[in-house]
Amino acid sequence: MTEQTPETGPVVQLRLVVEADDYEQAVTFYRDVLGLREQEAFEAEGEGAKVTILHAGYATVEIANPAQRRMIDELEVGHPTTPRLRVAFEVLDAEERTQRLVDAGASLVAPPTETPWQSLNSRLDAPGGLHITLFQEHLSREERAQLEGFGTGDD
C-alpha cells in the first residue's frame, strides 16, 4: 500500500486510463517505442479483458485556461490543434524519440520546435486516440523560474 508523504500530499499516484481499440499496438507503442516501463499487466481469464499499467515516472496535472492552450498551440504547432486533453511526456532526446514514434505509427502534427521557455517540443497523434507532446527541457526548473513570466502562484 502506498502512503502519503510530505512530497506527495494526499494524492500519491496519477493514473491515466486509455481505452485502445488495438490494445497490442498501443502497448507496443507506449511500452516498447516510447519507453514506458511495464509495471503490471492483467488479463481476465476467459473474458478477453486486458490491461497493462506502464510506469511513466513523475506525474503532474497541468491546468490551463483557453488562452494558455491557444498560445501553446500557436508556439508549438502554428495553429489551434489541441483537444481538451493532451498528454505530455518529458524525454531526453525529443528529436530522436519523435522520429521513433512516427516510425511506429504516430502521426506527426508538429516537428520538434524550440519554445521561448527553452524546451524542444513536438506534437503527435498517437494510438488510443491521444494527442501527445514530447518535450525536452534545456533548462532546470530553477533556471526557468528566473525567466520573465515564470514562477509559481506563491511568487
Description:
- A four-stranded mixed beta sheet has the order 3-6-5-4, covered by helices on one side. The chain has a two-stranded antiparallel sheet with strand order 1-2.
- A hairpin with a 3-residue loop joins strand 5 and strand 6.
- It has one domain: 2,3-Dihydroxybiphenyl 1,2-Dioxygenase, domain 1 (Roll), CATH 3.10.180.
- Helices cover 25% and strands 26% of the residues.
- The chain starts with 22 loop residues before the first helix and ends in a 10-residue tail after the last helix.
- The mean pLDDT is 89.
- The chain is an alpha+beta fold and 155 residues long.
- The protein has four helices and six strands, in the order H-E-E-H-E-H-E-E-E-H.
Query: Total number of helical segments?
Result: 4
Mean pLDDT across the residues is 89
**In terms of per-residue confidence, which ranges show pLDDT below 50 for 5 or more consecutive residues?**
none
Oligomer: single chain
- Structural class estimated from helices and strands: alpha+beta
Helix content: 10-25%
Q: Describe the main β-sheet briefly.
A: 4 strands, mixed
Q: What name does CATH use for the topology?
A: 2,3-Dihydroxybiphenyl 1,2-Dioxygenase, domain 1
Cα(first) to Cα(last) distance is: 35 Å
Shape field: globular
CATH architecture: Roll
Short description:
This protein has 155 residues and is of the alpha+beta class. It has helices at 23-34, 66-76, 94-103, 141-145, and strands at residues 37-43, 50-55, 87-90, 107-114, 119-126, 130-137.
